[in-house]
Amino acid sequence: MTDVQKPPMQDWATDFDHTHPDYAAQATEIWDDLRGRCPVAHSDRFGGVWLPTRHEDVAAIAHDTEHFSSEGVIVSPWKPEGLAPAGYAPPITSDPPFHAIARRLLLPAFSPAAIAKWEPSARQSCRDLIEEVVSSADVVDAAAQYTQHVPVRVIADMLGVPRSDGDKFRGFIHRILEDPGASIGTLAYEDTLDYYLHQVVADHRDNPRDDLIGFLMEAEMDGQKLSDDHIGGTIALLLIAGIDTTWSAIGASLWHLAQTPVDRARLVAEPSLLPVAVEEFLRFYAPVTMARIVKEEVAVGGCTFNQRDWVLLSFPAANRDPEAFEDADRFVIDRVRNRHSAFGLGIHRCLGSNLARMEMTVAIDEWMRAFPDFELADAGAVRWSTGQVRGPRQLPVRILKRGAE
Amino acid sequence: MKIILDNSKCEGHGRCYALAPELFDADDEGYAVLKLTGAVPAGSEEHATLASANCPEFAITVED
Question: Residue A64's beta-bridge partner residues?
C-alpha cells in the first residue's frame, strides 16, 4: 500500500526512518543493533527525531511529563504546536493537569468489569469470521480475513457506529499511522476522518442512544459539557487506537504460532496457559511505539534532546532489552515473570489495555479451536505494517487441521 | 510475608488483580486495591510474588 519506493537505509543510528518498509521487516534486529552500539538513535527526518532503545531510557521518558509533551504522539511531517494541554485527541494527546480529568471520564468504560461485558459479542464475532473462512480454500489470509475484523466489530459496537464502516476506519488508520503526512492536501473533505466524525456526532444528536459516543456527548468536565473538538478527538482516538493495535497484536501472535509447532501444540494441550501466553505475545510482539515532543532541553542516554524534537517511545524495543528481561530475545510461552511495557508506562498507560487483552485472548482461543494446526503458506507474502504500529497486514496461512465442530 | 502497594505508582495495568485476585481488587477506574491489611495468608505467597514481579510500574513490593 506504500506507493513510493523508498531507497534503502544506509545507517539506522543516524538516519533511521520508521516508516520505511525495511524497518517494518527487520525492526527487532535494528533495535538490538542500536541498543548495542548507540543506544539512542537520531534522524534529521520529520524535523528531527530520537529513538531510544533501552528499557531504562524509554521508562524514564514515559514518566517525565515535565520535559516531554504528548501534544504530538505520531511522528509525521506535521508537528502539532500550541495544542497542549488538551491536544487533538484527548486524553492520549493531553498533558497534566488536563490529562487526568479527561482520562478519568473514560476509565470506568474500560475497567475490567466493564470490558468483561463485551466478551460474549467479541467471541461471537470471532466465530462468525471463522465460519466465513472455514469452508473456503485451505489457505486463509489470517490478517485480511480474520484479525483485522475482530477489533473493528467490537469498537464499532462500543462507539455505536455501523460495523460496515470498517473499511473507512482502515482507510483512516492507514493514512494516519502507516504513511503519516503523505496525503496532506490531496483528499476531498468527504473522505477525511474529520468529516466522518462530524457525521457520526450529528447522527447521535438526531438519534440519541446509550453508547460511548452518546456518553461523551452528555459527559461534563468541571460542570461544562465537552467541546465538539474534545468529543471528536476522543472518538478519533478510540477508532484509531482501538483497531489496528489489537489487530496487529492478534496477527503477530498467529504469525508466531504459524511458525512454531511446539507452541501450537502446547496451547492445544493446555488451553489454560493462554492468559500467560498472551502476556508473552504482548512483550515479544508489542505493536505500539508512541511519540513525544520535547518541552525543554533534556539529556537522555548521553544525548541532548532539544526543545521541539520528536522522540519515539519504543515500548517494543524496551521489551527486548536484556537488561530488563531474562532471555529477552527468546519467546517463552510460559514466562510467568513478565513485567513488559506493551501498554506503555506512566500516566498514559493504554486506556484500552483490558479490552485489548480480552480481544487477543478470545481471538486466539477461537482460532486455535477452529484451526489447531496451521503454518505459513508463503513466508514471502507476509507483509508487516510500517510506522508506529507494527503487525502483519497480509498473513496467508495453510490450514493443516480443523477442530471438531 | 507482607505486601506494600504504592498507589502513587499504580497506573491501572491490572496485572496484580489478574494474577492474584484473592489479594488485589480493581476500583471502578481499574486501579489496584489491596484486599488485605496484615500478612499474606498461607498459600498465597507465590501469587503475591508474581503480582510484584509483573507490575510494569514497580508499584508492588513484598517483604518476608
Answer: none
A346 conformational bin, left if phi > 0, alpha if psi -120 to 50, beta if neither: left
pLDDT at A2 > cutoff 50: no
CATH 1.10.10.10 fits B2-63, yes or no: no
As a whole number, mean pLDDT of residues B42-47 equals: 96
Domain chopping of chain B, boundaries: 2-63
pLDDT digits (tens, 9 = 90+) for B21-34: 999 999 999 999 99
Judged against a pLDDT cut of 90, whether residue A187 lies above it is answered with no
All residues of chain A having their beta carbon less than 8 Å from the beta carbon of residue B24 are: none
pLDDT of residue A405 exceeding 70, the answer is no
CB of A4 less than 8 A from some CB of B:
no
Cell of residue B21, nine digits: 485476585
Look at strands A310-314 and A49-52 and give their pairing.
parallel
What's the Rg (C-alpha) of chain B? 10
CA A46 to chain centre: 21
Residue of B nearest to A344 (CA): B56
Q: Report pTM.
A: 0.95
**Least CB–CB distance from A347: residue in B11, B17, B56:** B11
Sequential DSSP letters for A140-156 = EETIIIIITHHHHHHHH
pLDDT for residue A115 is more than 90: yes
B22 at interface of A, judged by CB pairs closer than 8 A:
no
Provide, as residue numbers in chain B, all residues whose Cβ is less than 8 Å from the Cβ of A111. Answer: 26, 28-30
Q: What is the ipTM of this complex?
A: 0.97
* Contacting residues for B9 by C-beta, under 8 A, at least 6 apart: B57, B58, B59
The rounded distance, in Å, linking the Cα atoms of A206 and A202 is: 6
B29 lies within 8 A of chain A by CB: yes
> Rounded to a whole number, what is the largest CA-CA distance in chain B?
31
Q: What is the DSSP letter of A389?
A: B
Residue type, A133: V
Q: Which amino acid is at A337?
A: R
Tell me the shortest Cα–Cα distance from A59 to chain B, in angstroms.
9
Domains of chain A: 12-401 (1.10.630.10)
